[in-house]
Amino acid sequence: MLETGKISALQLGMIIYPVMMSTAMLAGPNVMAKAAMNDLWISPIWASLIGFLCVYTTHQLYAKYPQKTFIEQSEEILGKLFGKLLGFFYVCFFLQLNGFIVREYADFISIFLIKTPLSLISGVLVLVCAMAVMGGVEVVARSAQFFFPLFVIPLLVMIGLIFPDLEPRNIFPILGNGLIPSLKGAITPQGWFSEVFLISFLMPFLTDEKKGKRYGMITVGLVMISMIMVNLVTYFLMGEATGRILFPVMDTARYVSVADFFENLESGVMAIWVIGAFVKVSMFYYATVLGAAQWLNLTTYRPIVLPIGLLTVIFSFWGLPNLAVVGDLHLLVIPVLLVSFCCLIPVILLVISAFKKSNTAYKGAGSG
Amino acid sequence: MNRNARKWWRMNKQKLQQQQQMPESSTQIAKELAANEAVLRELYTNCTDVVYRSFLIGGSTKALVIYIDGLSNTEELDRSVLSSLMNGKISKETHARKLVEKTISVSKWREITTLEECIESISNGCPVLLIDQQEAALSFGLEKWEKRAIEEPVAEGVVRGPREGFTESLNVNTSLLRRLIKSPALKMELMQIGGYTKTKVILAYIDGIVDPTLVTELKARLNRIDIDGVLESGYIEELIEDHPSSPFPQILSTERPDVACGNLLEGRVVILVDGTPFILIAPTTLIALLQSSEDYYQRSFASTAIRLLRYVFTVMSFLLPSLYVALITFHHEMVPTSLLISMASSREAVPFPALVEALIMEITFEALREAGVRLPKQVGAAVSIVGALVIGQAAVQAGLVSAPMVIVVAITGIASFMIPHYIAGIAIRLLRFPMMFLAGTLGLLGIMLGIIATVVHLCTIRSVGVPYLTPFAPMKGKELKDALVRAPWWMLNTRPRLTGESNMYRQAQGLKPDPSKGGDTS
């Protein structure tokens, strides 16, 4: 057994929430407002459908092949050769994606630390995440659980503090241009929602397996609600400008002013957001490490934690020359990749496995 | 030269090992008294504190009493053993057991058959009576030595609560426990650790509440210890903890019997070590280190408020200097303008960057604290005067440090002393320094990464199998009422679930007092 730790379904939810939410919290309103304008709050609802589908497929696959992660399942379904091939693609995909996430984080942080080199910023984060991954799934889960309130409560407090400045009329007219803008706005967020696929790498370690699916669904729902909330608040505050501001939540924090003392809290938002980035990167990191170890049939994954961390830092630079390219990829390429790897392929595998199962059942009946 | 030294070391090591070898295991007591005496005198060569007293039982049979001067109650020995044996008319048949039954009026005694037991008894202060032509000797429980009286614990003061503290002698400590928990379910298992010191170690737990695997695990860990001496429970603590490479204490130490009993009742195991007032409690959690026994004696509102205050200040003692450094160095915009101006003006004359300033002040403060602990009491006042004057006034006036930094360091210092368990305070104070470096290099990001790394570390460590951050991560909703806040006693129905679920409830349901609930005689 590669992983001996056990986590609870609640912890699963608390890992997955920041995984989906941390990017969405920062860049979400801007991305969705660009396409959907004042209907940006509807986009998460469309996007979340992918999330629910992902949870469903992942759970179905898990029910068919219990105690196995996706890498092992694909081997079972597609046979040794194609399964290994697919596993290889997945490990590479996770590596690339994690590198991309680290790069996004580093680009964001470098707004605050202008002179600090990107490699240092990303290297330090990956090192901290390596500490968590080294401890195994239990440590990742426990730290996510510990940080969960620290991630959620400040956001709520911030919303409370800017409440007087909100202008709810900004969102009218609702669906003024029909459904199309809000659907267009859902293109990028559906990528974030399909990240819920990562529960495939956590389900085998659940103490209460039956609750896994339920908590996955609840988490997707909560993320949807949080996204709607963040979108609404930023749009209430900034109106049409939301689509032109790169990180609207940061600017929202700038609005906060309590008793002329708590002002300019954007560094605070950065601090809070680092927590989300930590959970997100560690979860992807863990999935990469576990997947690679299963793909290579290793008996322990600890020796490959640091090498994969190094690769992650390297992948955060390869093919990503500047912020503009990163922003561009982030809008369309990454979501398409995410949806195809996290949703489409699992669905195909599920269909294949359904055929296969019925075939073997038929054969079994014939021979018997 | 070097080679010779190594050779010499090797030879000496062999010699040491030879010396350590005890007399051949389990030598039976010989029939001849003279032979036994010869062996013992040989073993106790050059030990002037060993007293040999030979006499004749009933005027005929040769006998010998051996004890160590100052460890035994000689008056009682003279009265109950020597005088009654020498004066009484005793028949020729002087069987050891019969002697005890008929003539010796000592309540605590033991029959021993080997020389090893003899030596053990003698070293523990129990006089040994050897009789000629007998293969059994008698050991009397007449140990008595100078003890410190039971005093108020120094390190853990309370306003309300018992004022007794453990002392250095083991039997006093066990009696303190037994006086609080009278049930026979309180078990105390004796062990001996230490090649030379032969220190008595007692493993205490309440049968039926404790998880049996916990007891076996701790026993196995204690049995593994092979050391020449145990002088304080700190030795044991470092030898049985789960993660030696962690600044956080994974075993709680206390000198308060009420704390020990409270933990026993929650299903933990208490380890008492002879020779120190500090007992060990395992398993423990981070939150237990931040709780004082008084939390349970004060009203729950007061305790909750004090607990929250303590948590805030614990975080402050960890983060305040680094936050200050980060704000001054990187994030000016977060400081309100008027405050920023006053801070900048006071920092104008300071030649150092904020990080260096903070390090100088924090290290000086730590030095003052350490000096305050170590120095004789009469000089202590001088240290505090010098500290207050030099650091509080002169350094600021000379422009070496800024006044806000002095305030920050002072608050941090006070905050770190709010942590009820001194040793946990040390861990947090130590981690403050790397945090300051991170803040000085990466600003708020550095602080966040430092916090994350610390939390990840805390999530990694366990104390005898119990995750260190319980009940926060893994979350245990039922236990939060005694962690985040201190719920009133009538709500604390369940014990903390360390492991297992046996004997979950510690009191009856519905104990909330209410005028309608009776007890009213009118």
Number of domains of chain A: 1
Mean pLDDT of chain B: 84
Q: How is the biggest beta sheet of chain A arranged?
A: 2 strands, antiparallel
| Through-space gap between termini of chain A | 34 Å
CATH topology of chain A, which one? Amino acid/polyamine transporter I
Number of helices of chain A: 13
**What oligomeric arrangement do these chains adopt?**
heterodimer
Annotate the secondary structure layout:
The complex is a heterodimer of chains A (368) and B (522).
Chain A: H1 9-36, H2 43-64, H3 70-109, H4 118-134, H5 137-161, H6 180-185, H7 187-194, H8 211-238, H9 248-255, E1 257-258, E2 262-263, H10 266-295, H11 305-315, H12 323-331, H13 333-367
Antiparallel strand pairs in A: 1-2
Helix pairs in contact in A: 1-5, 1-7, 1-8, 1-10, 2-7, 2-8, 2-13, 3-4, 3-10, 3-11, 3-13, 4-10, 4-11, 5-10, 7-13, 9-10, 10-11
Chain B: H1 2-20, H2 33-43, E1 50-57, E2 61-68, H3 74-87, H4 96-102, E3 109-112, H5 115-123, E4 128-131, E5 137-140, H6 170-180, E6 186-193, E7 199-206, H7 212-224, H8 233-240, E8 252-254, H9 257-265, E9 269-273, E10 279-282, H10 286-289, H11 300-329, H12 337-347, H13 354-374, H14 377-397, H15 403-417, H16 422-460, E11 462-463, E12 466-467
Antiparallel strand pairs in B: 1-2, 2-4, 3-5, 4-5, 6-7, 7-9, 8-10, 9-10, 11-12
Helix pairs in contact in B: 6-9, 11-13, 11-15, 11-16, 13-14, 13-15, 13-16
List keywords for this structure.
heterodimer, A: 368 residues, mainly alpha, Amino acid/polyamine transporter I, 13 helices, 73% helix, B: 522 residues, alpha+beta, 3 domains, 5-stranded antiparallel β-sheet, 12 strands, 11% strand, elongated
Could you explain how this protein is built, in words?
- The complex is a heterodimer of chains A (368) and B (522).
- Chain A is mainly alpha-helical and 368 residues long.
- Chain A has one domain (9-357): Amino acid/polyamine transporter I, CATH 1.20.1740.10.
- Chain A contains 13 helices and two strands; from the N terminus they run αααααααααββαααα.
- The longest helix of chain A has 40 residues, at 70-109.
- By secondary structure, chain B is an alpha+beta fold.
- Chain B contains 16 helices and twelve strands.
- In chain B, the strands form three sheets. Chain B has a five-stranded antiparallel β-sheet, sandwiched between helices. Chain B has a five-stranded antiparallel β-sheet with strand order 6-7-9-10-8, sandwiched between helices.
- The radius of gyration of chain B is 30 Å and the shape is elongated.
- The mean pLDDT of chain B is 84.
- Chains A and B meet through α4, α5 and α10 of A and α16 of B.
